[in-house]
Specification:
Elements: H1 2-13, H2 17-43, E1 81-82, E2 85-86, H3 87-96, E3 99-104, E4 113-117, E5 122-127, H4 136-148, E6 157-163, H5 164-169, H6 179-185, E7 193-200, E8 206-207, H7 213-222, H8 231-250, E9 262-263, E10 270-271, H9 287-294, H10 301-309, E11 318-319, E12 323-324, H11 328-352, H12 354-357
Antiparallel strand pairs: 1-2, 3-4, 4-5, 5-7, 6-7, 8-9, 9-10, 11-12
Length: 361
């Protein structure tokens, strides 16, 4: 209504020369104001921003990196959605949603419980346990590392405390025979409480079959500088190359142990799940993870950019429940492995050129 009133005033003022001048000034002011308002609105709308990559400190040459200037990154540091769902709402649900039932998740040596919430959603809960290959806080650290790198491959994960009584009382009928294992392997404090990682349950995951001997030979050829990438394989292999980098950075040597390279049923989307064995204090990275990375010579441009901009301060992760997720030594080794990975990619780019190495967007 106010806009139409102003327009009528302007039209009427055109009847005189002085009115014409006044009208022109009013129109210019109105147009400039509208343009500025529209620009401010578009910049403030989260949905208008890309969801990858952090805006971090400028690149330095402090560790002998290439003098490559990556493209500018968007200002929002974390993706706002996971599989189309609001990520903050998912994290809140993982921390607070009421539990309906607890079911044992089979298929591994670690103790993993499938949690079904009252609202119908699910999560994977790894309690603190006696199994040394499964350290729950490292699952939450891997999720936060993935966010710092602009990835949406690790499902949202938080730390949550659950009581022994709550877990046993909600254990479903199919899992009752395994209650003795829960009591034997889960670690509870004096109040009967265990603290573990609660990860959003991605439905319908399948083994992508990338860790068999034949598959490894195949993708090694494709991801070498002499290999050819086909359109139908390019998307998945780009994600695999990022996984290989991610596993060296977090020092997860357990990836190619059988059946833990998982993705969607259509084989197009990979999820980096099962990270509870990572973040050991080896500053060079476990030989197994490094050897798999050495098979790969083609990587994502976005990942390269994010790695260079990832500051030391951003490699210290915490959770509202537990505080710091990694020890001082674990953080120090993490930073060292980040630097090694960046140098590895830098040497490849020096040898083969930017376009050849950064083959994926």
């Amino acid at each position: 209504m106010y806009g139409r009133f102003r327009l009528v005033q302007v039209v009427r003022s055109l009847a005189s020369p002085l009115g014409s001048l006044v009208a022109l000034v009013l129109l210019l002011v109105g147009l400039l104001g509208a343009s500025s308002s529209s620009l401010g609105s578009s910049l403030a709308t989260p949905s208008s921003l890309p969801t990858w990559g952090p805006q971090l400190a400028p690149i330095t040459d402090s560790i002998g990196l290439l003098a490559l200037q990556p493209p500018s990154l968007p200002t929002d540091q974390t993706a706002t959605t996971f599989l189309g769902m609001d990520e903050e709402l998912l994290l809140h649900r993982l921390r607070h949603a009421e539990i309906k039932s607890v079911h044992f998740s089979r298929g591994g040596s670690s103790l993993v419980l499938r949690i079904e919430f009252v609202d119908g959603s699910r999560a994977a809960f790894k309690p603190q346990q006696v199994n040394p290959q499964s350290v729950p806080r490292k699952e939450a650290a891997a999720y936060q590392l993935s966010k710092k790198l602009g990835l949406s491959a690790v499902p949202p994960t938080v730390m949550r405390a659950l009581s022994r009584d709550e877990l046993l009382s909600r254990l479903d009928a199919e899992s009752q025979w395994l209650r003795t294992r829960l009591l034997r392997e889960a670690i509870f404090d004096e109040q009967g409480v265990t603290v573990g990682s609660m990860m959003y349950w991605v439905p319908g995951l399948v083994d992508l079959g990338l860790d068999s001997d034949a598959a490894i030979l195949s993708w090694t050829r494709e991801l070498s500088q002499s290999g050819q990438l086909t359109e139908d394989r390019s998307e998945l292999l780009g994600q695999l190359s990022t996984l290989l980098l991610f596993d060296v950075i977090q020092n997860n040597s357990d990836r190619f142990s059988g059946g833990n390279i998982l993705g969607s049923r259509d084989g197009r989307t990979m999820f980096f799940i099962d990270n509870a064995f990572g973040f050991q204090t080896d500053p060079r990275g476990h030989l197994r993870a490094v050897q798999y990375l050495s098979r790969c010579q083609k990587f994502s441009r976005r990942m390269w950019t994010a790695l260079q901009r990832l500051s030391d301060e951003e490699l210290a992760f915490s959770d509202p429940l537990t505080g710091p997720l990694l020890s001082h030594d674990e953080v120090s080794a993490l930073r060292s492995r980040r630097d090694r990975v960046v140098r590895y990619l830098g040497r490849l780019i020096d040898s083969h050129g930017t376009e050849a190495v950064l083959a994926f967007r």
